[in-house]
Structure formats: structure tokens, C-alpha cells
Design a protein that fits this description.
Largest sheet of chain A: none
Radius of gyration of chain A: 16 Å
Low-confidence stretches of chain A: none
Number of helices of chain A: 9
Largest interface: A-B, 51 and 51 residues
CATH superfamily of chain A: AhpD-like
Distance between the termini of chain A: 22 Å
CATH class of chain A: Mainly Alpha
Mean pLDDT of chain A: 96
Helix content of chain A: 55-70%
Oligomer: homodimer
Chain lengths: 179, 179
Amino acid sequence: MAHINVPEGVPGIRSLVMFRPETGKPLYDLAQVLLRGESTLTPAERELIAAYVSKRNECMFCMSSHAAASRSLYKDERNMVDEVLHDMQHSSVSDKMKALLNIAGKVQILGNKVTQEDINEARKYDATDKEIHDTVLIAATFSMYNRYVDGLASWAPTDAAVYDEMGDRLAEKGYVTPK
Amino acid sequence: MAHINVPEGVPGIRSLVMFRPETGKPLYDLAQVLLRGESTLTPAERELIAAYVSKRNECMFCMSSHAAASRSLYKDERNMVDEVLHDMQHSSVSDKMKALLNIAGKVQILGNKVTQEDINEARKYDATDKEIHDTVLIAATFSMYNRYVDGLASWAPTDAAVYDEMGDRLAEKGYVTPK
């Protein structure tokens, strides 16, 4: 049971946003612009960064839902998501994405862990300022969502089919504030 | 120097928000509603939670600016801010605030570190659902801002007088997106 009195049967962050819509709106607006707004990183790639950080933060709800969204968006390459979550360095994801995921992993530990060498490695594969910015902000943002969802012990479904459906919905409709 | 090409001489998060205003808007909207919106926790108390979490995340810029904002808002009790940052458990802050700061400290580590006992302790001092919610979200949110500011190595002034002025401005005007 959640630590506070949120609507029953509503999973994860949705229940918290229904409890406090005033803070929910900027939280959803942020996810929408960051994961679906204009960017040279695809929504599939951005969802993968979100899932990777959520796994490292041990947030089962966020990891499962964003991995499902990433799989849905990657379509034929959907297996890559599980490869990255299992062992990023030996996965079939591009070298550029490996460099960006490495930066995201550093941010997940703490902001000051990102080194000039980490940035240089991403530049080697032509990562732009905006791509580096968005990678850092996605990793920072999920370090927030993960703590919010688990810090209040919100409900996380355990049925994989629920996440598949959620992933398809997030892939298609993006982040729409729940009513 | 920052890891990406942001406006020179603009400190911390402001330089990042000028680089990417699309994400800056929800980031500032979130800070404004969470730290200045309607709440039974005073803005001084909420800024103190922000400073406490930022110190634990080793983010000098956020710690200094939000400690300054909290001091400015606490007015005659301004010394309490430094007591809390030095040794929270032995500071002169209220027992209720100690219980909430303890929850914030757990969230700073990871969401799943918050225990039922931590929540019960806050309830003993009549902390409401909304106060517990906002404490967890402030701690989560600063675990994001801290990572964003340091992950991109944005510029942090070292002159204490700069932060005093910043604190007074944040106390008076709140969080207004930079132009």
C-alpha cells in the first residue's frame, strides 16, 4: 500500500498525479517535451535511456513501463532494449548510444561523476550539444520520477501484459496528464 | 567550463534553461508550484528541504542558492538553516521538520529506502499526506536539478555575496523562467 492515500488500483506515478494535479502538470509536460518533443534522438532511444536509468535506480514500475514503450517504438529491433538492460556494453546498440548511455549511468550515480572523457567519447560519434544535454536531463529526470514513485510506495503491477499495453499507449499517445 | 556551449557568465541551471527553453519551462513551473504554491509547509521550510538534499548530492550551486533563499525567508531564525546543513538531528529545527528531513534524506539515497517507520515518525507530529507527498517530491526533484546542474558542469559562482543576492531574489520573486 502507498504511504499516502492515493486512488486505489491506479499504478505508479499516475496515482500520485491524481493526488496532486498541481505538481502533476509540469511533471507530465516535462516528460512529453523531453521524450517526445523535437530531437535528433528518436523517442525509442530516449525511452531506452529512461528505462536504463530506472533499472539502475531499482524502480520496477518505471523500468518496466519505459522499457515497454521503447520496445513498442523500436518495433523490429525491440530485442535491443532487453540486451541493453541486461548488459549495455555488450549489447547491439550503436556506439553513439553506448557513449550516451554511459553518460546517463554516470548521472544516475551523481552529476559530478560525468567526466570530460565521457563527453569526448560521445563527441567521437558526433553527439551534439543538444543530444548530450537531453541525455543528461533524461537521466536526471528519471532519477526524480524513480524516487517519487518508490519514495511514496505507489502501486506497481507485476503482470508483464499490463506493461506491454502501457508501453503501446505511451508509444502512441505520449504523456497526457491523467484525469 | 560547462560540457556544452551555454551562455557565458550565467550561473547554474539558468544557463541550461537559456540553452533549452522548451525543457526549462516545465522545470521552472515545477519549482514554482512545489516551493511557492499553496502548502502548509512554509516556503522557508521547503527551501530548507531543497538545500538539505542538494548538500547530500554535493551540488554546491543548488545548496548555496537554496540555503540562501531559506535564510532570507526564515528572517530572524536564519541561523537554523546552517545548523540543519551542519547537523540536522542536533539542530533547533522542529521535531516535525526533523522527521520530514529524515524522509527527504532517504529519498536522496533512493526511493525504496523510505520505510513505514519513517512515515510513522512524521505522522506522530501530525504530518499530513500532502506534506509527506511534497517532502518526497521536493527531495526527488532536487535529486534531478542537482544532477542536471553538475552533470553538464554548469558554472557555479564561489562568492558568497552572489548567493545572498540570489537567495533574496528567489525569496521575493520565486522561480521565473530566465529570458
